[in-house]
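Table S2 (continued). Query chain:
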Amino acid sequence: MRPVWNGSLSLGLVTAPVRLYSAVEDHTVHFRQFQRGTEDRIRYRRVNERTGKEVDYDDIVKGYELDSGEYVVVEPEELDEIAPGRSKSLDIESFVELDAIDPMFFDKTYWLAPAKAEFERPYALLLEAMRSSGRAGIAKFVMRGREYLALVRSGDGVMVLNTLHFAADLRDPAEQLPDLPGKAQARGKELDMALNLIDAMSDDWRPEEYHDTYTDRVRKLIAAKKKGETITPATEPGEPTKVVDLFEALSKSVESGKAKKRSGSGAKAGTAKKSPAKKSTAKKAPAAKDLSSLSKADLEKLARERDIKGRSKMTRAGLEKALKAS
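Corresponding output:
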């Protein structure tokens, strides 16, 4: 795998050369474009709008349009020169609790690995420090002519870097959306039933149980067309729930959610062959002074024994707090 960025990760006076790798793989089915009724490919080219001739990529510069309609031309080299640290520095500016960041800020996910074996020691030190603290570092760096805000955190034996949106990039729903539900009020019985539905459908986060069913159907469509067959269309979405039927719809949903939970729990218990008395005999969580000496894996095990909800996405600090409160 080729790195998408090379530079140095810095924390105070500690610096470790690192490489950035994409942690996400695109499984989307990609198509070429053709003119209908022919086998002629449609291609896009960089064409001079005045001469109609194709232009080499090396002969293209960037232009910023002014209010007067004129353009300020900027060379690629000029953008590289003004980049902070000449696009080679990833400086951690502060540390925050991971739970304190709204998911709206998250953009893309990368792995941050040491550039060479000789730099593994400072890298391992920073990795372990972040894992033990349960905090993540906030940093900025420049890649491909653009500055990114980033979150650097401890992963499974490797640092994980998430690019973040800047606060100025996020839109205000009050300004952008014309019909916010500000006037509609939740009724008592309906709200209680909605809370029951959430409780009935609550479960641990298991990402391996979810997959891209749309891409699966696209592949089946391609295979069917190759054989000259047809494929059954997907079911249409359900009708909007009428306000007068809201409570009844919630009630039925709660029962359905409980039934699915019971069947799912039965299947898991059957495969794992766990004793039904295990939960009632779970040991009491250690005293607060003992929690700091445990690894995160041990904390997660204790949280699982005490059936603490949302434990799979908690930081170390969050797990300790939840165990102290249990």
